[in-house]
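Action item from last meeting closed. Structure (494 res):
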């Protein structure tokens, strides 16, 4: 169970007219500020003041049971396995935003609220925004002049009520699998049935004249899927095996994306909506792999794969035409048309102790995946675009140390750009996540058989958590910088 409560945030808006931006070159990622007066705080006039807070609680329950037996009519090492699993997820989110407008004639300029610090110009040359307001000073001014601002009840409701929702997901599954050996052959065959229930409740604001009301909005969905699978392995010699398989798998939309919510983000002029009608992606997978053990403690694998995808999921974008949020960008999860994905993966696992006795506690894993994809999207009929969320190049590497009580792993993740949002306007408004890499560190120490202390340090190299680019020129679109995160704790097992 996870519960997160955000402290109250105070947001002040200062606007300036006639600020000019331009790109120096066709390949520039960031615009430069042409207007030389960005240091003049008197040009920025306060237009609004908001207070925002929120709470989110996620609870997950899981139950599973598996049975394995060895029928007499099968071979000595052959088995049949069956099992059931049930997962329940419950999410509750509450957001409250009080939106205030500054009364005519009472709006101060920024000169009385200039911050002593300057934003780091980490986005690139020429992107320094100039003077910035001190949030604490603005809050003190509002507290001292409560009659200078007026709460906008309608906009506050439009930003609060639709952003608060509850969502429930229930998944029940059962499977049966047979493991058969025949000389150099090994077969795994079986099937899995899953049934998914979704229920959610949100809020919508019905605007009348002159009043408005907030009323609940409910949504539900349910679907079942059967997934067959067949794996065959043939051992050419003691060090080489060939594996072929056909499977069906599923990728559900994040269950919170299926709730009837609407979140307005004024700083980005963006609205995010849930889509209760979003369907799960279903994959038909074909794989052909070779496993080679060139030396003791080493395993090299090559895998060719093909995926036929139904109901691909992606983020669609459009522009709000009218109302208080006219001109805002609207984003929501949608289903696309049929898609395909193919490529290959090369991996190498090595126990370094087989290379040198002094390296016996160490091992490494290295994997490179090359992928190509093709997808159709309703906004762009007749065009073939990449499958959303798929990188062309992906590298996973890890160096590990393992002893009786201690485990340490330094990991590297690298992925090339991938399509994040599809625009109805055209390719120049499509959004991609740029190339990025992370360094992560995990360390565990077993205190005793039941207690383990751990440190999980993510993003040691302080890469951008989010680096979004727009169009073929890869112009800067949006950034979110979360330099690193360290999780320290103890784990109880019995």
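Sequence:
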């Amino acid at each position: 169970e996870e519960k997160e409560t955000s402290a109250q945030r105070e947001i002040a808006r200062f606007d300036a007219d006639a600020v000019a931006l331009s790109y120096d070159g066709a390949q520039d990622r960031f615009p430069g500020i042409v207007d030389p007066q960005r240091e003049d705080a008197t040009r920025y006039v306060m237009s609004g003041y908001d207070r925002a807070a929120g709470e989110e609680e996620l609870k997950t329950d899981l139950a599973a049971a598996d049975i394995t037996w060895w029928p007499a009519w099968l071979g000595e090492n052959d088995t049949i396995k069956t099992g059931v699993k049930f997962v329940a997820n419950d999410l509750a989110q509450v957001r409250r935003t009080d939106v205030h407008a500054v009364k005519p004639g009472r709006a101060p300029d920024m000169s009385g609220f200039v911050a002593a610090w300057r934003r780091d110009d980490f986005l690139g040359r020429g992107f320094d925004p100039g003077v910035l307001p001190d949030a604490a000073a603005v809050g003190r001014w509002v507290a001292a002049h409560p009659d200078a601002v007026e709460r906008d009840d309608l906009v506050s409701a439009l930003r609060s009520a639709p952003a608060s929702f509850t969502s429930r997901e229930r998944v029940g599954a059962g499977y049966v699998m047979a493991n058969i050996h025949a000389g150099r052959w090994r077969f795994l065959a079986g099937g899995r049935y899953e049934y998914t229930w979704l229920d959610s409740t949100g809020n919508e604001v019905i605007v009348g004249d002159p009043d408005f009301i907030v009323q609940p909005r409910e949504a539900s969905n349910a679907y079942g899927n059967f997934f067959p699978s067949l794996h065959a392995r043939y051992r050419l010699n003691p060090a080489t095996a060939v594996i072929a398989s056909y499977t069906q798998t599923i990728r559900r939309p994040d269950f919170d994306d299926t709730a009837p919510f609407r979140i307005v983000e004024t700083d980005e002029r963006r609205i995010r909506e849930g889509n209760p009608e979003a369907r799960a992606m279903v994959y038909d997978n074909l794989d052909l792999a070779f496993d080679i053990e060139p030396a003791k403690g080493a395993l090299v694998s090559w895998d060719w794969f093909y995926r036929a995808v139904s109901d691909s999921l992606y983020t669609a974008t459009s522009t709000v035409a009218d109302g208080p949020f006219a001109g805002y960008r609207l984003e929501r999860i949608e289903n696309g048309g049929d898609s395909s994905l193919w490529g290959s993966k090369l991996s190498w696992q090595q126990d370094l102790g087989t290379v040198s006795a002094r390296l016996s506690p160490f091992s490494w894993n290295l994997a490179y995946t090359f992928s190509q994809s093709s997808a159709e999207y309703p906004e762009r009929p007749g065009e073939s675009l990449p499958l959303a969320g798929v990188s062309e190049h992906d590298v996973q590497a890890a160096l590990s140390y393992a002893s009786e009580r201690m485990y340490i792993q330094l990991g590297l993740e690298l992925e090339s750009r991938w399509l994040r949002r599809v625009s109805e306007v055209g390719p120049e408004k499509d959004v991609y996540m740029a190339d990025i890499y992370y360094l992560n560190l995990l360390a565990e120490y077993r205190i005793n058989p039941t207690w383990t202390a751990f440190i999980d340090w993510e993003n040691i190299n302080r890469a951008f958590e989010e680096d979004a680019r727009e169009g073929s020129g890869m112009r800067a679109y949006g950034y979110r910088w979360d330099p690193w995160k360290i999780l320290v704790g103890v784990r109880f097992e019995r």
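Note appended to the action item: The chain has a mean pLDDT of 87.
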